Amino acid sequence: MTHSNKPTIYLASASPRRGQLLTQVGIPFERLACDIDETPHEGEAPAHYVVRLAREKAAAALARLAQSGAETRLVLAADTTVTLDGEILGKPADAAEARAMLSRLSGKRHQAMTGVAVAGQGRIETALSISDVTFRPLEPAEIDAYVASGEPMDKAGAYGLQGLGSVLVAEMRGSFSGVIGLPLSETVELLRRMGYPFWG
Ligand SMILES: Cc1cn([C@H]2C[C@H](O)[C@@H](COP(=O)(O)OP(=O)(O)OP(=O)(O)O)O2)c(=O)[nH]c1=O
């Protein structure tokens, strides 16, 4: 697929995965860093949380673009979290927290959720992807070894389904791209709704 006839979108994300996924389906993008407060609201449901954060990231990026006078096209943002029994497991703060998260996920099914937002032309549209992921029972020594690999540290729930973390997962039902940070079919659908010429 060539990039030549497609407009560049702004990706309001520092996540390397989100960029790789867009490249995988031939969507050219420019990155735009945006820092927002990612603290969940008191009692906020995980599905609400990821969509709210995606919306806030996109809105913050759009506001920055407007300030810089840049021509605004479409801004894309997303947020991924892992939830176990209704509780939000974000990115671990340190190795001890990564070990604790992986011990909780061991032998159980959890949900991986990604909220996506596309903003531009005075509108903002959102989507939500929810997948079920089941971990096989993990031995303490393999949790230690996995944490020592460093892979868990920048990932929600302390694992990467796309990497070494794949050996911990017995089953996944849902969207692979959604679990790892950007559900591609929902994202392309949102972009097309905003007038993006995905198929040319
Ligand atoms: C569950 C899971 C998460 N992840 C990653 C995707 C996200 O990058 C990260 C969750 O953190 P997010 O806060 O969604 O994203 P981010 O901080 O990496 O980037 P930004 O806010 O700038 O867009 O976890 C994987 O890479 N693989 C997985 O299997």
Distance between the termini: 10 Å
Write the CATH fold name: Maf protein
Unreliable runs, pLDDT <50, ≥5 residues?
Answer: none
Query: What share of the residues lie within helices?
Result: 25-40%
The profile of the biggest β sheet is:
7 strands, mixed
Structural class: alpha/beta
Order of helices and strands: EHEHEEHEEHEHH
Radius of gyration, rounded?
A: 17 Å
Gross geometry: elongated
Mean pLDDT: 94
Offer a quick outline of the entry.
The chain is of the alpha/beta class and 200 residues long. The protein has helices at residues 16-24, 46-68, 95-105, 140-148, 176-179, 184-193, and strands at 9-11, 29-31, 75-84, 87-89, 109-120, 123-135, 169-173. Helix 3 (95-105) packs across helix 4 (140-148).
Please name the defining characteristics of this protein.
200 residues; alpha/beta; Maf protein; 7-stranded mixed beta sheet; 33% helix; elongated; binds thymidine-5'-triphosphate; hydrolase activity; Maf-like; ITPase-like_fam; hydrolase
